Amino acid sequence: MAHRNWLTAGAFCVAIVLAATFSALKPSSADGQAMMLPVDPTPLVAVTGSGGHSFSIEIADTSEEREAGLMFRKNMADDHGMLFVFDRPGEVNFWMKNTPLPLDLVFIGQDGRIKAIKRGEPESEAIISPGQPVNFVLELKAGTAARDGLKDGDLLRHPVIAKASGAGSN
Q1: CATH classification of 44-165, choosing from 3.40.630.30, 3.40.50.300, 3.90.950.20, 2.60.120.1140?
Q2: For a FRET experiment, which of 15, 127, 132, 133 has its CA 20 to 30 Å from that of 112?
Q3: 3-state secondary structure the chain
């Protein structure tokens, strides 16, 4: 009987360790901590009327990563952003709950063209939507889009965007 209790206790301990290990591997903001994704080695380039502007980006391409986004992030470099990648074009809705940074939300079509640029107010639960189907959303520090001259119709280049458009590498 004692042997079975030791086996049960041992199995239970192993289960706890495995659960803790695997939960630590998943990006999560449930604990109030900002999710930090790896910076993609290839910069995203915005081709605007005033020239090209490069951004280092984190790519959120799973539902868990898209859900957490930049929540709880208190600061971010001016040339940094997060690119949200969706499997297919569709209407998307964002909000800024638990996001203390004011943001520019750049809504991007499958072809890599900017469809709309919206402002996100910190901690707001107001829905932010482009009003048309998009494949990507680039979140930047508020004011970055205006500072760099990003406008509707401008082209954004990155291998992830090129793959969605069927153009290969941009």
Answers
A1: 2.60.120.1140
A2: 127
A3: CHHHHHHHHHHHHHHHHHHHHHHHHCCCCCCCCCCCCCECCCCEEEEECCEEEEEEEEEECCHHHHHHCCCCCCCCCCCEEEEEEEEEEECCCECCCCCCCCEEEEEECCCCEEEEEEEECCCCCCCECCCCCEEEEEEEECCHHHHCCCCCCCEEECHHHHHHHCCCCC
Give pLDDT, residue 166. 77
> Which residue in this structure is represented by tokens 């979140």?
139
d(CA 167, CA 170): 7
Average pLDDT per block of 10 residues along the chain, 170 residues long: 49 40 43 91 96 97 96 96 96 96 97 98 97 97 97 98 74
For residue 60, give both structure tokens: 């959120």
Sketch the domain layout of the chain as residue ranges: 44-165
pLDDT for res 5: 52
